Amino acid sequence: MEIETKFPLTRAELADISTGLVRFPASWEEFWDVLEHAEYRTDFLQNEIITRSYESNLHSKIVTQMIVLLYNLFPRPQFIVHDSNRPVYLQDCENDKAVFNPDCSVTPEPPQLFTYKPGMDTETNPLLVVEVLSKSTREYDLAEKLPCYKKMQGLRYIIYVDSMRTYLTLFQRTGSDQWLNTDYDQLDSAFEIEGKTISLREVYSHLGR
Question: Around 194, how many Cα atoms within 13 Å sit in the side-chain half-sphere?
């Protein structure tokens, strides 16, 4: 299937449309065509391609720091820490399939993959996902992606890190369909992942907070 010109393929073309969140109606097949040809990452939800034109410096710093912290937390080769270029596949998201690109994620090895076609696959069993909240993505991340993440049976931790203030929310699965939601807003606060501690000071210290 040839990609249609109605979809921008470069970050510059996206920025000409909007510097915030961008949405395009698209079929499942069109989404994979865009994913194969475009220079940006994108989500697919409810027959829409959902993306943004660029990542701010602040957002990038927080994502990088979370990747470092998680890399030091999870042993290898039992787990792998992915950056935002590694998508996850959701079989049941609002009664349909979806693909998200968390800012970072942790998956157990060996991977369990959904393959659209050779060379194009996604993770299906993340243990943990991280999303960094910004003004342009906050509503989408919390109102649309969060309910879908909670349906992933293998997922045990969902972390939202606020880029605009010192504020972190941890969702931890306590049962099949039960989640414990805890908010942290002090640099001296700390939360546990798999019995190991991460402090908010570690998450935000590189930003001078």
Answer: 12
For residues 164 and 149, give the distance between their C-alpha atoms in angstroms, rounded to a whole number.
23
Residue 137 to residues 19, 115, 144, Cα–Cα distance (Å): 11, 27, 10
Q: Identify the CATH number of the domain defined by range 57-207.
A: 3.90.1570.10
Radius of gyration from C-alpha coordinates of the chain = 17
Residue 69: enclosing H or E segment and its boundaries? helix 57-73
Q: What is the pLDDT of residues 133-185, one digit of tens each?
A: 998 899 999 999 999 999 998 999 999 999 999 999 999 999 888 999 999 99
Domain map (residue ranges) of the chain: 11-52, 57-207
- Measure Cα distances from 201 to 7, 23, 65, 82, 166 in Å: 41, 35, 11, 22, 9
Q: Which tokens in the block code for residue 112?
A: 């369990």
Q: Which secondary structure element, helix H or strand E, spans residue 60, and what is its range?
A: helix 57-73
3-state secondary structure of 148: helix
- The confidence score (pLDDT) of residue 113 equals 97
Give 111's DSSP letter: P
| Nearest alpha-carbon partner for 141 in 101, 195, 111, 172 | 101
Which residue ranges of the chain lie beneath pLDDT 50? 1-3
Written as six digits, the tokens of 147 are 């309910």
From CA 43, how far away is CA 101, in angstroms rounded? 6
